UniProtKB/TrEMBL annotation:
Component of the replication restart primosome. The gene is priA. One of its GO terms (biological process) is DNA replication initiation. Initiates the restart of stalled replication forks, which reloads the replicative helicase on sites other than the origin of replication. Recognizes and binds to abandoned replication forks and remodels them to uncover a helicase loading site. Promotes assembly of the primosome at these replication forks. Belongs to the helicase family. PriA subfamily. It holds the Pfam family Zn_ribbon_PriA. Residues 500-719 form the Helicase C-terminal domain. This is Replication restart protein PriA.
Length: 822
């Protein structure tokens, strides 16, 4: 009896399930877990998906369709990855399809708008149906069309069965773009055929070609390029384009020589990624404190899977990472080096490149898709890369044999993905990933997160400390300026205290550089009517618009909506509108007035949106072409600059007063990190913190560089108010286009959850920003005490959400879960 085999497939749809398809006979022998397949979905769609399971059980509740095509000879995704995806989906309460979408570069998937291509080389074999002819006629002309477009042809209506049969006949193809994305770029190479490796043969060739002058010239050029017609050079190869350039020959002319059997032409893989040409420098020798730290890390790895390297800014942590990476490579293992942000990769990458050269791969979202596919392919097939440096999505690369994961700046909240799902924390996911590989984890930072430091205290993680900067450079001197006093004494110019201006003056006179930190971009946060206090708000979101002077527009930082500045108040008609508060753009404008001769640059989301602009900004500052760098938190992150002597933190209050239970923790981190930019290599730096509350305990801890005191006092508060890391949080966001329905649905869900979880449920509440892009948002928070099984709670939550979204009264309600929200 014939057995039918089935595959359960992960598809990029937000349904919490897998989809079962029948495996056509011809594929049965070579389908594997993790292979990419193309399948029809519903009546009108085609998707690519990943095989998650193989079996011979026919599903009972629906008719299975057949897989259209299997894209990979060898799986594009390995089994550890499938387990990892499963963990992410489970822990972060999302679907495998959502993880799949986030994990694979788009070059490896068919997106929803699938295109079919016309196969120009195809010759009809047998008769075609009328519908097949319609599709072929259409495509013969257009060459490529989406399934949707084909469905629009009136005589056709549903093109899928027709497309399917044409795919089988190979008259069309859908997968070529995918395979292209996956296939490395190649170049044409020319070499002498083996037969001609004898000098006698060459002599004959010269004689034979004496009447084909042009071909002879090509052959001569070839010999020049390989360094002469000497047997030592006969096996050398050259780029076909070089030969064309040198000899002026056409492809056809070169082909003549291939036909005669003198040349051979073949494809060689070339990288889309730039190769380093620098000579490699060895690693630096570690100084004594670094060596002690290094030894201690290795010793603690004997019985701990994770170790925290808590080292002040500039203590030489990166240098220790480099030594650990080197060691793993020598052991034949791979290393993943995680960074919180692209902003950081530029500097660290060039440091690592100098040591690891082409064994270093880089992976982040500013890379083109083809480049990302190439990195994926390299890692999958164990080609060049031994160490990958990347941002959060690089935890999804198809690693095998991972020995170590370094999580640099582990405290950074950019490790957490907010939107879309999976809302994962790359640090926490990386720890799970390392466990699956039997790899070790090194977390590094000058300002540990409470979560990580608690794990140290619980002895789950090891701890290594470095309290001295490399080469004994002093920690900066930090002082506060009470802006309230300064204002009273009329000593503020614009947003700068007299103390700061004086200090900047001194620094600039000595040719030193200055960094000014303002955690807000734009010109001013908002515009206000002097008559009636009206403030322009976004039409789609419940936030005030930020004024950007350069483009003279109001912009919403939540949805990007922007419009021209109104000339009069829309509420009372008064022309007296005033900007309130200040952002980096305003600081830049004012500072240029105060220091007209200084070269000023600004680094924030507006000026450093692209990889290039960002690299340029950092490069300019590194080369000393900028005197004053103004920036948002972007400049706080581990950047290592020479000659910065002065750092000004312009408005500490706005950070400290931010309405979030992590505000103090964040403020400590930001202030300590920004201060760390001062006085790196040449002398002690000076940091000036402007605040109206110099006695704030966070400010005091920053000044004294007292992490432990900060940690202890924050932990006390978290425990008292039932927050992480003592309690676990899960946020549910109920979304609806209609405010009333959003209220009713969230009330319903809140009641329902309270009946199961009682006091653990907080809300529903309208969040501070209760409308984004015309979606009305309501939040419900779950606070889960230590010792309760999260799995059980998540199971009940999933059921509750399903009950809500399938309730006829709450059609089109969306519920998003965020586990361990930041
Ligand atoms: P961190 O990562 O802790 O901020 P870095 O590793 O960036 O510190 O070190 C700070 C500076 O000191 C860098 O410019 C680095 O090149 C230099 N440095 C650190 N350790 C060494 C060493 N062992 N030999 C030479 N230079 C070092
Ligand atoms: Zn008004
Ligand atoms: Zn908006």
């Amino acid at each position: 009896m014939k057995t039918t085999y089935f595959a359960d497939i992960i598809l990029p749809v937000p349904l919490p399930r897998l989809f079962t398809y029948e495996i056509p006979e011809e594929y049965i022998t070579h389908v594997e877990l993790g292979s990419r397949v193309i399948v029809p979905f519903g009546k009108k769609k085609i998707y690519s998906g990943i095989i998650y399971a193989l079996h011979d059980t026919k599903p009972e509740d629906y008719e299975t369709k057949e897989i259209l095509s299997v894209l990979d000879e060898h799986p594009a995704v390995n089994e550890i990855q499938l387990n990892f995806w499963h963990w992410i989906a489970d822990y972060y309460m999302c679907t495998l399809g959502e993880v799949y979408k986030a994990a694979l570069p788009s070059g490896l998937k068919l997106e929803s708008e699938t295109k079919v291509h016309y196969n120009q080389d195809w010759l009809p074999d047998g008769t075609l149906t009328a519908k097949e002819n319609i599709v072929l006629d259409y495509l013969a002309e257009k060459k490529v069309a989406t399934i949707q477009e084909l469905n629009g042809i009136t005589e056709l209506k549903n093109s899928l069965p027709v497309v399917k049969s044409l795919l089988e006949k190979e008259a069309l193809f859908v997968s070529e773009k995918l395979k292209e994305g996956y296939k490395p770029k190649t170049k044409k190479i020319i070499r002498l055929s083996e037969e001609y490796h004898k000098e006698q043969k060459i002599q004959n060739a010269f004689t034979d070609l004496s009447r084909a002058k042009k071909q002879l010239e090509v052959l001569m050029s070839f010999f020049t390029l390989i360094g002469g017609a000497h047997p030592d050079n006969f096996s050398k190869t050259i780029d076909k384009n070089d030969l064309k350039d040198r000899s002026g020959a056409s492809s056809a002319l070169i082909k003549e020589l291939v036909k005669k059997g003198i040349f051979e032409e073949f494809d060689e893989q070339v990288s889309r990624l730039s190769k380093s040409n620098d000579t490699l420098l060895g690693v630096h020798t570690l100084n004594q404190p670094q060596q002690v730290a290094y030894d201690s890390i290795k010793q603690q790895f004997e019985d701990k899977n994770a170790v925290l390297l808590h080292g002040v800014t500039s203590s030489g942590k990166t240098e220790i990472y480099i030594h650990l990476i080197k060691e793993q490579i020598e052991l034949g293992k791979k290393v993943l080096y995680l960074l919180p942000e692209i902003a950081l990769t530029t500097q660290i990458t060039s440091r690592l490149k100098r040591v690891f050269g082409d064994e270093l791969g880089i992976y982040h979202s500013k890379y083109t898709d083809a480049e990302r596919v190439e990195v994926w392919d390299d890692v999958l097939n164990n080609k060049n890369y031994k160490v990958i440096i990347g941002v959060r999505s690089s935890v999804f690369l198809p690693f095998e044999n991972l020995g170590l994961i370094i999580i640099d700046e582990e405290h950074e909240n950019t490790y957490k993905q907010f939107d879309p799902a999976p809302r994962y924390h790359a640090r926490d996911a990386a720890i799970v990933l390392a466990h699956m590989h039997g790899a070790k984890v090194l977390l590094g930072t000058a300002t540990p997160s409470l979560e990580t430091y608690q794990n140290v205290q619980l002895k789950k993680y090891g701890l290594v400390e470095l309290f001295e900067r490399y080469e004994g450079i002093k920690m900066p001197e930090i002082v506060t300026v009470n802006v309230r006093d300064e204002v009273r004494k009329k000593k503020m110019s614009s947003h700068f205290s007299s103390v700061l201006i004086q200090q900047m003056n001194d620094a600039l006179e000595k040719g030193e550089k200055v960094i000014l930190f303002q955690n807000r971009r734009g010109f001013s946060p908002y515009l206000e009517c002097n008559q009636c206090s009206w403030v322009p708000k976004c039409d789609y979101c419940d936030v005030s618009m930020t004024y950007h002077k350069q483009i003279n527009q109001l912009t919403c930082h939540y949805c990007g909506n922007s419009y021209a500045l109104p000339r009069v108040c829309k509420a009372c008609g008064s022309p007296s509108l005033q900007t309130k508060g200040f952002g980096t753009e305003k600081i830049e404008e004012d500072i240029k007035i105060i220091f007209p001769d200084a070269k000023v640059a600004r680094m924030d989301l507006d000026t450093a949106r692209t990889r290039k602009s960002h690299e340029t900004l950092i490069g300019n500052f590194e080369r000393g072409e900028v005197d004053i760098l103004i920036g948002t938190q972007m400049i706080s992150k581990g950047l290592d600059f020479d000659h910065v002597s002065t750092v000004g933190i312009l408005n500490a209050d706005s950070m400290l007063n931010y309405p979030d239970f992590r505000a103090f923790e964040r403020s400590f981190q930001l202030m300590a990190q920004v201060s760390g930019r001062a006085g790196r290599k040449n002398k002690q730096g000076k940091v000036i913190i402007q605040t109206s509350n110099p006695d704030n305990p966070v400010v005091v801890d920053v000044i004294n560089n007292n992490f432990l005191n900060h940690f202890n006092s924050q932990m006390e508060e978290r425990q008292a108010f039932k927050y992480p890391p003592y309690y676990r949080l899960i946020h549910l966001t109920v979304k609806h286009r209609n405010a009333n329905t959003a209220n009713q649905a969230s009330d319903y869900l809140g009641e329902y959850l309270r009946s199961i979880f009682s006091h653990r449920v907080v809300g529903p509440q309208a969040p501070t920003i209760s409308k984004i892009q015309n979606w009305h948002l309501r939040k419900i928070m779950l606070k889960i005490e230590p010792g309760v099984s999260l799995n059980k709670i998540k199971g009940l939550l999933r059921d509750a959400i399903t009950t809500l979204v399938t309730h006829p009264g709450f059609k089109a309600t969306v519920v998003q879960a965020d586990v361990d929200p930041m």
